[in-house]
Amino acid sequence: MPAEENQVAKRAAELRKQIAEHNRRYYEEAAPSISDREYDRLYKELVDLETKHPGLASADSPTQQVGGKPLQQFAKVTHRAPMLSLDNTYSEEEVADFYKRISKLLPNEKIPVVIEPKVDGVAVSLLYENGKLKSAATRGDGVVGDDITQNILTIKSVPERLRGDAPKLIEVRGEVYMDKRGFEKLNAERKKAELPLFQNPRNAAAGSLKQLDPKIVATRPLGLVCHGTGGTEGVDVDLHSKIFPLLKKLGLPVTEKFWLAKSVDEILEKIHELDRVRKNFAYETDGAVVKVDSFAQRERLGFTAKSPRWAIAYKYESERVETHLIDIVVQVGRTGTLTPVAHLEPVFVSGSTVARATLHNEEEIKRKDIRIGDIVVIEKAGEVIPAVVEVKTSARTGKEKKFRMPNKCPVCGGKIVQDEGQVALRCVNAQCPAQLKRRIEHFASRGAMDIEGLGEMMVEQLVEKQLVQDVSDIYELTKEKMSILQRMGEKSIANLLGAIEGSKTRPLWRLIFALGILHVGVSSARSLADHFGSLDELMNASVDELQRIPDVGEVVAQSIHDYFQEPRNRKVIAHLEKLGVRPTVEPKKKTRDSAIAGSTFVITGTLSQPRDEIAETIIARGGKVSGSVSKKTNYVLAGEDAGSKLEKAKQLGVRVIDESEFRKLLAR
């Protein structure tokens, strides 16, 4: 094989591998790792290579396949008619080429097309027989999908029985979405509960549909938009535009608006009109779908191996807006890490008003040459945290200022250091008020000492009023001291004091984790508690002894040792003990009948109950819970939005299980 052909073949193989992995993450995990635009660029490159070099094409290429494999935990449903994906483009010129192409295939015919919103949701198919919902399924691989009937029935807009004179059989195609406002509310609740935030409404909807417990799905603000049909019996409709009133008459939710067009100019005009009004829809949209209206013409136009020739999706660019970067403010976290944040002139983007954007670190600011006073371009595109993607250097007046990280802590004026191999800077003053607030929040959080009522706003007041100087002062709070705080009535004070009192006998591992020792997570805290059995023993342990514990390496051991050698930390611990904090050591439970005894688990992603509760269940059955995946890991329990730990498990060949399989293990 000539060198050039060999290079082309290697590139095609590399693209297939990348695209297959991105398909798996998108369709099977609902956790895409690249943008739609970047995915489409890779896909188009592969299509172009296979077109120019037909010998490279193969049946297992992603260009010949649809969607992803059905998940293992759901029953399977075979679609009456295949659910094919659409070719898509970001180019108006390619939309024009699409219409010219179908006009050549159907010469001397008028070809009306329908333009409708491309809902950014999860493709589903609902099968109604004699008016009753028989099944609901995901797209899957286009032929077979996952049975999500019980989950679909929790969506209020989905009827279990159709209205009026229903046809004998109708396969309804649509998109499940998460309501924009509901998404923001859900993330606010998750933030309050200290759960991982959903990245965007589409991922949240996909993750919801993959829940094995319909009760959880019922709590999610999901909706459905129906936009077409698959297999039908007893449906006498010849135009796609007639489908919408039919579905609406049957009681199904349909797209809010659609347009008809008969020329390239009209198609582009309607695409622009949709772009102007789509922000008012309850759901996210990322494009416009152009479909031939006549079913008879569709039949003659036919299909490729993956997509219909009679439709194309035009995708809008991610919404970007310009605004003024007023200032760059450095925030200080619980461990002292300094993070620069852009303060912006408030601007409305992607459904919400944005006034701040993360800048990550000083290196990122230098790379993008971001300056205070710049006109910047920000992009949200459904993401939780907006980002500065571009600087309008042409708009500079010369008054803009370069940003430099401070040489001392912006809150307390203390010394800052840069740990070896790290980009971030850290304030080393343990009494820094910013760190103190974050430490108290961490100490009281649900995964640590679980003190309900001691949230961000309360902590802010306690520190500002100097009622707490360290975490031990929490246990010296009284009704009289808290009476000066805003929005604290007698009942609220009583509830908080009760929660504080109840936290005094939390398990030892919770106190170890709550202390906020650098690099010590929940699993390490559990291992330390199991090994030493008391805080005194742990405080006096040497680095060598610490390193002999599972989950504790050289860096973590040194961090633990350094923490307990600090006189200020020892003083806080002594004060906690004096005030009655008596952590309990959980007794080992008999595990003779447990199928998971001796097995090591890693828990990742969002599950139907808090991770710490699941961890306690595992430990009670004789298993172990680790914070990192290694060859010694027996199981990775993965929920929705699982990330790098799931990837590492797959690389190492560690068995990955979902909640359903986990419950089966427990039942043995």
Task: Itemize the secondary structure elements and their pairings.
Elements: H1 3-28, H2 36-52, E1 76-78, E2 88-89, H3 92-105, E3 113-119, E4 122-129, E5 132-138, E6 144-146, H4 149-152, E7 169-178, H5 180-192, H6 201-209, H7 214-218, E8 222-233, H8 243-249, E9 259-261, H9 264-277, E10 285-292, H10 295-301, E11 311-315, E12 320-332, E13 338-349, E14 352-358, H11 362-368, E15 371-372, E16 375-379, E17 387-391, E18 401-402, E19 416-417, E20 426-427, H12 433-444, H13 456-464, H14 479-482, H15 490-502, H16 508-514, H17 522-532, H18 535-539, H19 543-547, H20 554-565, H21 567-578, E21 600-604, H22 611-620, E22 624-626, E23 635-638, H23 644-652, E24 655-657, H24 659-667
Parallel strand pairs: 2-11, 21-22, 21-23, 23-24
Antiparallel strand pairs: 1-6, 3-9, 3-10, 4-5, 4-7, 7-8, 10-11, 12-13, 12-16, 13-14, 15-18, 16-17, 19-20
